[in-house]
Amino acid sequence: MKITVCEIGNGTDMLEQEWRKLVRHVRSAGSDLVLLPEMPFYPWIAATRKADRVIWQASVEMHARWMSRLIELEAPLVISSRPVISGGRNLNEGFVMDRVTGYKAVHHKYYLPDEKGWWEASWYERGEKNFTAIQTDQAKIGFLICTELWFGVHAREYAAQGIDLLVCPRATGMTSTDKWIAGGRTAAVMSGAYCLSSNFSHRDGEGLKWGGGGWIIEPEEGQVLGVTSGDHPFLTLEIDLSIAEAAKKTYPRYVSD
Predict the structure, then answer these.
(1) Which residue ranges make up each domain of the chain?
(2) Is the pLDDT at 206 greater than 80, yes or no?
């Protein structure tokens, strides 16, 4: 299975330019799955503390318009998160876009930071505490959106569900990249699954200083197979899902609580 992770700009102008480059890369590589950053299609709204209903609505609408453009990647699966309004609630919705069956909402972000640059709990509500994997034709997939990566119990829960891939779309800063990669390595070992993450690019000169550093991490020992960079913002690797299946039977995954 060919997996693509990335780092792309968060500013509107840069996004359009880098989107075209990503489309060319994914088509050339023949990727089966593409992971995008967290809420990628509108300037990061949680950079300011005061929530604005008009801005939230604009972000919801912009993301909705971009859903029709995911087909440009020509990948069987595209994964990310987006802002939605559901039942009158503002939520951050993790989704899988399947080229055959279409859009599937999988998970609503539950653990929300609220601090300078990441005023997420001020902007939207936490979803249900539901960490249930989704089975696709390509793989079984679990979500940990950004901050959720630090709540390791859910990686263990996903191991029990037999996931192949643990996807972590994120929006994280430049000063914490090494810490996040360490978290990704731990989550890969705990879940016995390939851990994948994409982020916003540090080349983006607008607003926050993004950390980049999209990754693919293997499930047995948590070895980093590759990390994106400013010079190489797109990473595609072919992975063997049978390795994730085998990892579930080895230490520490087989140890029950």
Answers:
(1) 2-247
(2) no
